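Lab channel / #folding
Pinned by the channel admin:
"Please post every new chain as: sequence first, then the structure tokens as a reply. Keep commentary short and put observations after the output so the thread stays searchable."

First post following the new format, from NK:
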Amino acid sequence: ELLSKGFFIKLPNWLLEKNKPVSLDEILKAFPDWTDMYPKYAMIYFPEIVQWDKQTYFNIRCISIPDDILDKLKKLINELTNNKLGYTNIYIIYKKARILFDDFLTENNIDNENKLYQLLKFALTDDSMIFTKPHILKGRKDIADYSTENLIYEVIGEKDIISKSWLKTTVYSYYGERNSSLSLAFHKVLKN
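Reply from TO:
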């Protein structure tokens, strides 16, 4: 039973009782025979366990999303993915959510893109969305994993000749200009 789902069942329940993010040190004190890898193993079995901050874990079920907020978040994501690629990412969503749902985000200590991503990935479990951090795709069940490079290649499509400036402008229109992974992906793609 060691490292089985049954072995780790106590962590999501314990985190739910704590009703707040808990440090790795606190977890190891509560479960003295555990190693620092065990919470990560537990995350494999229980998607409601998320890494909230560095060395901090949280049961995402502790956040209750009011139906009206959830509906508005779904509507926002549908609007943002209403493009040729069915694509958006958490950076764009977070920026808009900060404006539209600031009180909700502040009340729930959702102060960065990662935390909102974790919440959305857990809350929006219908089959129409694919979450491959930081990317979010709608209606793309054919994709198991998606990278920034994939986005660039999809933008290029079947075009034989493109300009670097057209490519950057077009990719920025989907991705936004925030993130070093975009620069890295451009470098890899343009090198090929």
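NK: The chain has a mean pLDDT of 89.
TO: also worth noting, Strands lie at 22-23, 49-53, 56-59, 87-89, 129-132, 135-138.
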